[in-house]
Design brief:
2 copies of one chain form a homodimer. Helices cover 32% and strands 26% of the residues of chain A. The first copy, chain A, has 313 residues and is of the alpha+beta class. The first copy, chain A, has 2 domains: 6-144, PurM-like, N-terminal domain (60s Ribosomal Protein L30, Chain: A, 2-Layer Sandwich), CATH 3.30.1330; 150-312, PurM-like C-terminal domain (Phosphoribosyl-aminoimidazole Synthetase, Chain A, domain 2, Alpha-Beta Complex). In chain A, the strands form 2 sheets. In chain A, strands 8-10-7-11-9-12-13 form a 7-stranded mixed sheet. In chain A, strands 1-5-4-6-3 form a 5-stranded mixed sheet, covered by helices on one side. Strand 3 (45-54) of chain A pairs antiparallel with strand 2 of chain B.
Chain lengths: 313, 313
């Protein structure tokens, strides 16, 4: 954990870092050297991703607490590990903090610490610097013996999605219109959950491609389809979705951090066990086909493959 | 490599990422999934660090080219791997880019790519988002079978420093005074070098503690001394330094990215071989002692240990 070299004043900066380390307690490890060291399980691949949350771009201060901002930023990054079915090893936090956020620094740190603890991994490093705009850049490290990739889907596979979609999109629409979001929608927007254990369950069950839903189901389905060289046929009406949300809204709601999975058709997925274990739905929403011009086709009423998804956007 | 989810427009953002990937060519690997995967050498420890460079805090636009800003940000992070004597595995780049910097995006990326290539490692991931303030957060991954730590110095050790100090501090003083820095000073400020191979040479030679000089020799010597529970006695007059720089200036110049090393006294260091191999000095500047109240003592003219270093700051 180190700080900016020019200004801010060593004392104040080190004090802030010390306070953050105290906030994290035993959840912060390996801090104090120029870099942190971690043991890697032998034979596993190292899985890494980095993600930034910027005030005014990814959130507004009046929308949620500082602690929620920290937790949500960490979740967005941890979700990338989930998409690879990787087990988390550690989190690094780089903070750019303006003067007006100084009093919220510990709450931001607390949120990151809670998200890391929920993911069962320590905070292994970080950086603190001043700036004019609050940003949190979170880097996550994990390991996987057989990482799931976007490119793994094959014609004939079934397509599954975790959870109930539409909450974040509905909450964001309300907030941007200065309306009060439904509590359930807001909770999904403010406190999303990285589906880490769910991903490992799905990988163990036989899943062979995955992506997390950050841009919206349809957009991320298109990413997965293009990476795999296939076309996905999705029945949006079958989507599990939040109350008060249309299928089209659910399919275009971003920052869900749910998972989209391709599973060989001959795998018998124990959906009931998944639901009992994780308390969220696992829904078969379609199938994988040889590539046509459209990456994603949407089943119209009655089941025909009517059209691509672009007109929904 | 992924982008901000709310605004900027998928198209433009993905175009920018594509352009960066083309700029990097084969130096960018594993990009395109939610996370990157890397092979770890078996038996080695994973070494990680993250560092941010923010406009107006760590640099000003008029001081250097966008490419130099990118390379310098990467160097600051890579230097943390050098301080641990780790071999680099990969670099992740998270960029927050304001509109006014859009046209410099590829030059920033090029600089990071050049620094990564010089360190012999690929760019394995990243993130791009808009914001009102330019920042580059670089996360570096490396491996080491026996990482050097700050806490390893022991009473009786000799203290060495790599390179010629004082350039960055002198350049910064000139720039802040709107004067023209000496070219040699400016080069050290704009284009510092992470001492990665030097660190591995020193570790192989027997070094048992190290820190990189980012806050200034005296401040970093104090960090190392406190971590090791010792006191360092340094003869600043023996420092290799840039022309036109006093010993005190050299000892307080930050962002050097040179290394401060503790070496057992019974190790015969082949300084000549170091100089021939790397083309920079390796200088014995003092010794390690049992801890007294001051973490660092400075040898006065004639060699006596006269005083702590705080009065120099």
């Amino acid at each position: 954990m180190s700080g900016a070299h020019l200004p801010l004043g060593d004392g104040r900066e080190f004090d802030a870092i010390r306070a953050m380390l105290e906030e994290w307690g035993p959840r912060a490890t390996g801090v104090g050297d120029d870099a942190a060291t971690l043991e890697m399980p032998s034979g596993a691949e190292l899985v890494v991703s980095t993600d930034a949350s910027v005030e005014g771009v990814h959130f507004r201060r009046e929308w949620m607490s500082a602690s929620a901002i920290g937790a949500r930023a960490a979740t967005a990054a941890l979700s990338d590990l989930a998409a690879m079915a990787a087990a988390p090893l550690g989190v690094l936090l780089s903070l750019v903090v303006p003067e007006r956020w100084q009093s919220d620094l510990l709450a931001l740190a607390r949120g990151v610490g809670v998200a890391a603890a929920n993911a069962g991994c320590p905070i292994v490093g970080g950086n603190l610097t001043r700036g004019s705009e609050l940003s949190l850049t979170i880097t996550v490290l994990g390991h996987a013996s057989s990482p799931l990739r976007r490119a793994g889907a094959r014609s004939g596979d079934r397509v599954y999605v975790t959870g109930r979609l539409g909450g974040p999109g509905a909450a964001l629409r309300a907030l941007l219109a200065s309306e009060t979001p439904a509590a359930a929608h807001l909770a999904r927007f403010i406190a999303p959950v990285p589906r880490l254990r769910e991903a490992q369950w799905l990988a163990a069950a036989g899943a062979r491609a995955a992506i997390d839903i950050s841009d919206g189901l349809l957009a991320d389905a298109a990413h997965l389809a293009r990476a795999s060289g296939v076309t996905l046929a999705l029945d949006l009406e079958s989507l599990s979705r939040m109350d008060g949300v249309t299928a089209a809204q659910a399919a275009t709601s971003g920052e869900e951090y749910e998972l989209l999975i391709a599973m060989p058709a001959d795998v018998s997925v124990d959906v009931g066990q998944f639901v009992r274990t994780f308390g969220i739905p696992l829904t078969d929403i379609g199938s994988v086909h040889p590539a046509v011009a459209e990456a994603v086709l949407i089943a119209a009423d009655g089941g025909g493959l009517a059209h691509g998804h672009d007109h929904l956007r």
